[in-house]
Amino acid sequence: MVLATYDEADDRRRLNDHAFAVASAEMAELNGRLSRKNVELNEALESLLRSEEIEKLNQELSERNEQLRSAMASQTRTQQMFETLASNAPLAIVYTDKDGRAVYANQRTADLFHVEPEELLGFGWLNVVPREQHAEFAKLLDRSTGSTWVIEHELLRADGSRIWASTTVAEVSHGGGSGGWIANVEDISERKRNEATLERLATTDPLTGLFNRLSFTERVRSHCEALAPDEAIAVALIDMDRFKLINDSFGHAAGDQLLIEVAEVLQAQMGPDDIVSRLGGDEFACARVVRDEAAAREFARSLAECLHQPFVVERQVVHTGASVGIALGTSGDADPQELLRDADTAMYRAKASSEHHRVFDQSFRDEVTRRFSLERELHTAVATREVTLAYQPIVDAISHRSVVVEALARWTSPALGVVSPIEFIEAAEHIGLSRELGRQILDMACAQLGEWRRAGIASDELSMSVNITYAQLADQGFVDLVAHTLAAHDVPGSRLILELTEQALLDDFDRAVAVLDRLRKLGVRVAIDDFGTGYSALSYLARLDVDYLKIDKSFVHRLNASGDGGENRLTEAIVGLARLFDLTPIAEGVETSMQEQMLRTFECDLLQGYLFARPMFADDPALEECLNGGRELRLVS
């Protein structure tokens, strides 16, 4: 056997090749296995990823289901709450579809309409709204989406009765379109009744049902604005005559009944376009559109005439009558208040007229303007003591000697000149100055008498006569004032005579009796002034403790020399009446020797008038001559 030659290098190469082949095979197998593992791993990863996503989705789904269950529970609670609130709400709540038909109504709604809630379902608004309001509701229902509106209106109940309601309606939107309306309905019938009552009280007189002053002026203003060029508005102011006497005689209830009857008579006298009102007390006002002043006068005449009919009060027939003043407004801007003011002025003129009616003219306005100026100036006059006194002697009818001097108020205004005493004394009473003015006059008169007595100009027997008003007599402190004034000027009470009119005494007769009794204790004497022009009742002469009876000059002026006239007998009777009651008669206004002679024949004790002396101021030498030593006065005619 032949052995091959051993080659180590070749052997190493073959070994390496074998090792490489083995390694390559193993590497290929490993790569295959690795590839298979990679595929398996990718598949496992993909599977793992799919499981997490599903879990996440499941989790989200669970959360959403929980939210949905919570929302459904909340919605259920909200619905239950709404139903509870709606069922117990004080307001009626109605939900309608987009066509206005009710799909829900609470119990309050059913109570409001006197039905069961189910009976309202399917009803539309027009089923419960009065026919005359259908058009208005149709317009409201056509309003744009999202609008809310409130309306006060009437609603029809199942029984046909009506109620007033305040309805708030809000439109509900779904998906951009109208889903219907929800309405809250409040019953405001009671409020409407209260408003009607307040309106009635604000615009009408509660006693007669006529318009009150406010309503009257508003309607007159409306008539003025509508006047044609050839038209005028006649505003009449009516004041009942003797109403106070009827009220005092029969009581306030009877007086109210009379006012109601007067209102009915006036309403019957008015036309459909006329206005009639009660302004207050016994004052009424009427207004009518007229063509001219003649028509206004006829209007005034008809009003005065219709109220001069007899009325029945407390089952007794009474005759009251009325005074009517009318003012005319001829332009659209005529002021109702000014017309009433002018009519009031004309009415006071009518009271002194036999026809009992007057139409206002410019002369009345001038008088009113003067009266306003007079009252304004009188305030200043009293504050600065501008009013002074003149003195007129009253003489003994036999001796012609001055026994009394009457203090007479005089006023010369820097702005108005000489003002009549009648005018400014009446104005003082009207504006509440009569007490202060009377106090000043009493003080000046007593001061002057005290000065004359101290100077020896007047005898100790000379008395001062001073006029006083009802306002002074009614003053609680009047008697004390008289006592203080007498003491301040050292004048005995017996030398003061206070003159009062019959009206002042009778306005509060019992009080007058008590005041006169206190004055008598001071020694003060009292005279009844202007006797015969008032009540002249014998009964009060018997009860009043007075000293003098002054015969009004109107009786003296009517005396005649023939001696066969009734006026002579009347004056003689008054003198006799004075003597019957142990009073001293004083005749005022004696201007002629004939009048003096007749009064002496009637045995009138004291005389006053121009025949003996005119009123004179204290610094007039003629006055001192009249008073000095009680000298006899010469006759001037």
Describe this structure in words.
This protein has 637 residues and is α/β, with parallel strands linked by helices. The chain folds into 3 domains: 92-192, PAS domain (Beta-Lactamase), CATH 3.30.450; 204-360, Reverse transcriptase/Diguanylate cyclase domain (Alpha-Beta Plaits, 2-Layer Sandwich), CATH 3.30.70.270; 372-630, EAL domain (TIM Barrel, Alpha-Beta Barrel). Helix content is 49%, strand content 21%. It is built from 22 helices and 22 strands. The chain has an 8-stranded mixed beta barrel, surrounded by 5 helices. Strands 2-1-5-4-3 form a 5-stranded antiparallel sheet. It has a 5-stranded mixed sheet with strand order 7-8-6-11-12, sandwiched between helices. A hairpin with a 5-residue loop joins strand 1 (92-96) and strand 2 (102-105). The longest helix has 81 residues, at 8-88. The chain starts with 7 loop residues before the first helix and ends in a 10-residue tail after the last helix. 30% of the residues are buried. The model is unreliable at 1-6 (pLDDT under 50).
